[in-house]
Write a structure and sequence with these properties.
Layout lengths: L4 E6 L2 E5 L3 H20 L5 H32 L4 E7 L2 E6 L6 H28 L4 H24 L7 H14 L2 H28 L3 H31 L4 H4 L1 E2 L4 E2 L4 H8 L7 E5 L5 E6 H5 L11 H4 L1 E2 L4 E4 L4 H10 L5 E4 L5 E5 L3 H11 L5
Parallel strand pairs: 2-3, 6-7, 10-11
Antiparallel strand pairs: 1-2, 3-4, 5-12, 7-8, 8-9, 11-12
Helix pairs in contact: 1-2, 2-3, 2-4, 3-4, 3-5, 5-6, 6-7
Bound molecules: zinc ion (ZN).
The site of zinc ion has 5 residues, from α2.
Length: 378
Amino acid sequence: MGKDIPLGRIFGIKLGMDVTVFLFAAFISVTLATAQLPGLSRGHEEYAYWIAGIGGALFLFLSLLVHEIGHALVAQDEGIGVESMGLTLLGGVTRMESSPTTPGAEFRVSVVGPIASAACGVVFLVGAFLLPDSGTWDLVGALFFWAGYVNIFLAVLNMVPAAPLDGGKVLSSIIWRATNSQATAMLWSGAAGIVAGMALATWGLRNLSRGGATFGWFNVIVGFFVAWSAFQQVRSAPLYKALEGLSVTDAMAAGPPTAASWSTVGEFLRTSFPRPEHQAYPVVGPDGQVSGLLTAAAIRAVPPESWDQLPVAALAYPLDRVTLVAADEQLIPALQKVEGADVRHAMVTAPDGRIIGTLDPSALDRAVHARRQHPTPV
Ligand SMILES: [Zn+2]
């Protein structure tokens, strides 16, 4: 998203908030203060309802955060890097560097979110029953009851077996385990997502026609969002089918020419004659160690007249900005890592640590082509 308002870090993970969250929070606060809380707990001052309404919006966003922290911590536990967590108009989002590589990991990363929501719901509901039923405590209790109810609702909604909801990913992981094919799982959980999304939108439209404006619109928007995301997933299933079972080795540009860090770009081009399939070149320092990566795109971005004055080291990306992927890694998650990185070329390492190739998004064409030449039975 990029335009997230930064909110610091939790468990070392960057946390941000979309500006639209203020709109959502205002809507929740107004609804709570003017309609729901006065119905649940009578006889308080108007300002008390407003404070409780704002508190309710905070409770809701804290619970959404607990849900996302659940996803993020389990993902990290499964060895998946987590870029950031964010709050948006449609709830929370955890941005991972790549998707889970096994059905078991997909199941655990997905199911923990609804479990976290349900746990928040239980905590709030228990709080509501423990708080005294008199005076201001009664209003606080009403707030806890509302927050508990909403969290249980979120846990149930998220377990609807429709992509891209958590339940859709859980369904996908089960089909994946049963058929041993992620592409098949994406196809069926996507289809379920389209059906569920359209059903939700239709229900919302019926609500609207009966005058239930607010929740009608909410269901229409969420319904179309779910159906559209699920449709995208169904569309990408054939590509997954083509890449399934391939490793980084099948798609990398093997044996790229290396560039000496102390030579100029001009010298490198004259002595190495890089072939078109090589779009990135590991840079080797005087000690023989790889110290960075020079890309063809970076070379093209400076005028050819300056190539003979420009040292390779000045134009190359330093090692800490370059993604490393292992040669035997599965291709799909490796490509996801490269797509998400700011340098869209990765270096491929052999088990002994040597750099044996580079990987970039154009590898997709190579991989699909390789698959055509070496078909595997399905
Ligand atoms: Zn979730």
